[in-house]
Amino acid sequence: MRVLIIEDDRETASFLKKSLKESGHVVELAADGETGLEIGRNDNFDVLIVDRMLPKLDGLSVISTLRKEGNQTPALILSALGEVDDRVKGLRSGGDDYLTKPYAYSELLARIEALARRSSPEETETSFSVGDLVLDRLSHKVQRGDKPIVLQPREFRLLEYLMKNAGQVVTRTMLLENVWDYHFDPQTNVIDVHVSRLRSKIDKNYEVPLLHTVRGAGYVIRDGDR
User: 97-100 and 133-136: which strand pairing?
Assistant: First the structure.
């Protein structure tokens, strides 16, 4: 996913960029409204994250201008203004979602992923495949080649999340927030244990491994060692 962050607070912008890149996304920054508008006009993004209060041109004006020009890229507005009238004004300016500061990064990530899904034809996807490994979300069945694989509920959620992000490095933080619903690190080896169990089920006795550890970064599921 390609994300444009229009945010004048350097610390906030730096944190968001680092976190989103760790989540496997491509990120560009703009520190004021005029620059953000120009970049948004001239490049294709999957989602815009727009601070409401910006120098040179405020965030709502950035979004409304893009909408008038026919740009329908989903936009998440960030603002310290959280009253109902403020949110309504933001949405009526062309914003697709509105998140009040302070916020949890996990919620921001979930919201922009939801915006991207709504604008993507892949939102109704009910199954995932990587190589000869297939996961069916409706029947909760997994098989590799012609061999069924029995997974515990947490193992299924883990594999589903990895396959949904196939080819992208999935960090420990992403797994904690999206598979375990933790918004903090409990400092246990729960992820390592489950990944090890999952690997033994989907990769053991197969010539081509699919689940790989990326040292110092996280895990990735992909077809082959590439």
Answer: unpaired
CA dihedral 15→21→26→30, nearest 10 degrees, is 10
- Residue range 76-106, pLDDT digits in tens: 999 988 888 888 988 988 999 999 988 888 8
pTM of this prediction exceeds 0.85: no
Neighbours of 18 (CB within 10 A): 11
Cβ burial 125-149 (10 Å sphere, 16+ → b, else e): eeebebbebbbeeeeeebebeeeeb
DSSP H or E run through 225: none
**Do residues 194 and 158 touch, judged by C-beta distance below 8 A?**
yes
Domain that holds residue 21: 2-121
Task: Give the CATH number, domain containing residue 40.
Answer: 3.40.50.2300
Return d(Cα 99, Cα 82) in angstroms, integer. 8
Q: Which of 23, 66, 12, 11 is nearest to 3 (CA)?
A: 23
| Greatest mean pLDDT among 119-128, 139-148, 182-191 | 139-148
Number of structural domains the chain divides into: 2
